[in-house]
Design goal:
96 residues; mainly beta; 10 Kd Chaperonin, Protein Cpn10, Chain O; 6-stranded antiparallel β-sheet; 6 strands; 0% helix
Length: 96
């Protein structure tokens, strides 16, 4: 299944956080974790339409690694894989 976001929505695949503590202890999968704030852009919508009726192009593109607000994106599950759908305003930065 292919996801095609609308307007200024972005589909993000979470990038796993470090599974090891600073002292070198590996954390098990069952430990409760914080929601991720970093991910890889999988798909990007065409952009929002401004009040003048013109489409505003998106600043992020597919395969960008981005930082986003912790609780802004919505979680979805497709074929046992978790994704996040965020608006462009939820994206804080592009990591280079």
């Amino acid at each position: 299944m292919k996801i095609k976001p609308l307007s200024d929505h972005i589909v993000i695949e979470s990038i796993g956080q470090e599974e090891k503590t600073k002292s070198g202890i590996f954390l098990p999968e069952t430990i409760e974790k914080e929601r991720p704030e970093q991910g890889k852009v999988i798909a990007v919508g065409p952009g929002k339409i401004s009040s003048s009726g013109k489409r505003v192009p998106m600043e992020v593109k597919k395969n960008d690694v981005v930082l986003f607000t912790k609780y802004g994106p919505n979680e979805i599950k497709i074929k046992d894989k978790d994704y996040l759908i965020a608006r462009e305003e939820d994206i804080l930065a592009i990591l280079e």
